[in-house]
Amino acid sequence: MKSERQPCVYILASKPRGTLYIGVTSDLIKRLYQHREGITGGFTSEYQVHRLVRYEMFGDMEQAILREKQIKRWHRQWKIGLIESENPDWHDLAVGLGFDPLAPSGWHDGP
Q1: What is the pTM of this model?
Q2: Any idea where the GIY-YIG domain is (predicted)?
Q3: How many Å separate Cα 5 from the centre of its chain?
Q4: pLDDT single digits (tens) 42-51
Q5: What are the C-alpha distances in Å from 41 to residues 10, 32, 34, 37, 73?
Q6: What is the pLDDT of residue 109?
Q7: Which of 15, 19, 30, 52 sits a CA distance of 20 to 30 A from 76?
Q8: Sheet holding 20-27: strands in order across?
Q9: What are the structural domain ranges in the chain?
Q10: What does the H/E/C string look like for 28-65?
Q11: For residue 87, which phi and psi values (nearest 5 degrees)?
């Protein structure tokens, strides 16, 4: 996996319309690896929130942090709408970035 250092806001989900986590990083590949391996501990490990369902790249970290804060303030339904606007079936986008698919563990494609 090639690591691309670029500011990014990302959303992880436990399952479609499940528990969401919104984060910001300068290295999405490294951060996804940390989440998936449980290195980060905390919320994402406790609630098994490891599937990348949306990400947005930015030119600088300041823009990315502002966007992360904006999305975190949104109502849950707005966040779901944002995800479903480009990923209606809640596919794990990390697979397209070179990661192996995660074990199902209650995850189903679609409703």
Answers
A1: 0.89
A2: 5-81
A3: 16
A4: 999 899 899 9
A5: 17, 13, 9, 9, 23
A6: 45
A7: 30
A8: 20-27, 5-13, 51-57
A9: 5-97
A10: HHHHHHHHHHCCCCHHHHHCCCCEEEEEEECCCHHHHH
A11: -140, 65
